[in-house]
Amino acid sequence: MKIDLNSDMGEGFGPYSLCDDEAMMKVVSSANIACGFHGGDPDTMARMVRLAKENGVGIGAHPGLPDRAGFGRREIPYSADELRQQMLYQLGALKAIAVSEGQRVSHFSFHAAMGNMVNRDPKLADLMMDAIRAVDPELIIFAMPGSEIEAAARRASLKTLLLFLADRAYDAQGRLVARGLPGALVKDKGAVRARVRQFLVDRTVTAIDGVTIDMPAKSVLVHSDTPGSLELGRIVRSEIEAAGGTLAPASEVVG
């Protein structure tokens, strides 16, 4: 059983960082690297690519809205074409840096508000996926199960890898509980361990209201800005290994 463990990384800039990226890179199998808009900068992106190379970690683009102050979590009313160009700009930047280091970008994962906007709009989702396919038809799209991003990626004949978010609560419909609501962020170590164990054994997760929902994912995400993210990542890894799973980057999980 191959399982991917991924984290959003390189989301600081200049001298600022959100987590110990170097240590986290030794825990995960895939890194979603911020591409300079909501977080990251050219030097940080290059450092993340080099760390991924050193640790055999898959490299993914993690584009977001140009909003450092809001960490890319505030929706901004850009047109569909503006969003398309912003996404392509970031993807292209990371691809260039990766190629210069003898590496390739193998997967793609939207950040926060940009992803939310795409998930609500089938036409925008199709526009984004068609643009990604034009740049690199081999990119693996990270998506939530049953999401518009997953559907649009499949319509564009792009490979997908479905995500289980270990540190975020779900509602009974399988949607993420909005940040800011009580219980939306799961940061208790015991709770994360229990959620991951349930996912690995039953492929289910218990929603915030107690309902059990299916979770047909093959990748587990831990956000690097969640308090204690490094320890949470280690817990997830230990549970995967204890369940007899093999950690593998997205490209090996999808095949």
From TrEMBL:
What EC number(s) has UniProt assigned to this enzyme? Answer: 3.5.2.9
Q: Does the keyword ATP-binding apply?
A: yes
Ordered alphabetically, the record's keywords are: ATP-binding, Hydrolase, Nucleotide-binding
Q: Which reaction does it catalyse?
A: 5-oxo-L-proline + ATP + 2 H2O = L-glutamate + ADP + phosphate + H(+)
Q: Which InterPro entries match?
A: Glyco_hydro/deAcase_b/a-brl, LamB/YcsF/PxpA-like
Q: What quaternary arrangement does the UniProt entry report? A: Forms a complex composed of PxpA, PxpB and PxpC.
Name this polypeptide is given: 5-oxoprolinase subunit A
Q: Please tell me the species this chain comes from.
A: Aliirhizobium cellulosilyticum
The taxonomic lineage of its organism, from the top, reads: Bacteria, Pseudomonadati, Pseudomonadota, Alphaproteobacteria, Hyphomicrobiales
Gene name of the encoded protein = pxpA
